[in-house]
Design goal:
With 257 residues, this protein is an alpha/beta fold. The chain is built from eight helices and seven strands; from the N terminus they run H-E-H-E-H-H-H-H-E-E-H-E-H-E-E. Helix 3 (57-67) crosses helix 5 and helix 4 (80-95) runs antiparallel to helix 5. Bound molecules: S-adenosylmethionine (SAM).
């Protein structure tokens, strides 16, 4: 099994042991991920056919280079000066409309590995503004040709999840940004109406659906109201602001399974 090539917030590798039994008898279907993020699930389930979407165009541009057998020849070091030089160059490419170039994909990988927590954040004018990460050691991969065969039969797209064209028999795994209650800010611009939009759209799908989220009371109520079968999982431990290390409670909601 190939490891996810990037660090990505909300990686669901830990869910594979729950997903594998659900996927097993459907593995001839196409896997559709409207929020594919770091690809932990597709790389773990290894579907023959897949449609993988994420609203982040830089992420998808990087994956499209993996389909072409990416090799990186940029200098890559865990060095603050080099990090900011590469960040400036990446932003210059975006500004020039060259965000889908080979160089931008290589820089995106380097910035993801070297920047703070693997974050992918942009300021109002569209400039990547994640600071240097201060890791002790980083392993950089230069040769991504081993991803080429795995990715070859998969289709990648970058759009809002509602644009993802579903076919009747698709097996959908949907992992939207977590619902965060009691905050004024929408996480990644994904607010409550987007949570409703996602749950409602997938409730109309005829094939199997797995929809996961943080187990907030309103998510629980929404998914039940729409007819999903709801189970709870203990997510990986996260340190909350009061230092409490309780595992996050997660919802795994299914339809037609
Ligand atoms: C929780 S992450 C998915 C993580 C993934 N399952 C993994 O294991 O790495 C949610 C993803 O949704 C994407 N996203 C946010 N809003 C979106 C939208 N409106 N349509 C599609 N994708 C969106 C984000 O860019 C992010 O990568």
């Amino acid at each position: 099994m190939l490891p996810p090539p990037l660090k990505w917030a909300g990686g669901k590798r830990w869910q594979l042991r729950y997903l594998q039994p659900l996927w097993k008898s459907h593995s001839r279907r196409r896997l559709v991920e409207p929020f594919c993020g770091g690809l932990a699930v597709a790389l773990g389930l290894e579907p023959r056919r897949a449609l993988l979407n994420d609203a982040n165009p830089h992420l998808v541009a990087f994956y499209r280079w993996l389909v072409r057998g990416l090799q990186i020849d940029l200098p890559m070091e865990n060095d603050e000066k080099l990090f900011y030089a590469h960040r400036r160059r990446f932003n210059a490419l975006l500004e020039a409309g060259d965000g889908a170039s080979h160089e931008a994909a290589a820089l995106f990988y380097y910035l993801n590995r070297t920047g703070y927590n693997g974050l992918c954040r942009f300021n109002r004018s569209g400039q990547f503004n994640v600071p240097f990460g201060r890791y002790d050691r980083i392993h950089y991969r230069r040769d991504f040709t081993s991803y080429r065969d795995a990715f070859a039969p998969w289709i990648f797209m970058s759009a809002d999840f509602e644009q993802v064209p579903l076919e009747r028999g698709d097996f959908v795994y949907a992992d939207p940004p977590y619902d965060v209650e009691f905050t004024k800010y929408e996480k990644n611009g994904f607010g409550w109406t987007d949570q409703e939009r996602a749950a409602e759209r997938l409730a109309h799908h005829r094939g199997p659906v797995v929809l996961v989220n943080q187990a907030t009371p309103r998510i629980d109520a929404l998914y039940r109201k729409l007819g999903y079968r709801v189970e709870y999982l203990s997510g990986p431990r996260r340190i909350s602001c009061d230092g409490n290390r309780a595992p996050a409670r997660e919802v795994l909601a299914t339809l037609n399974l």
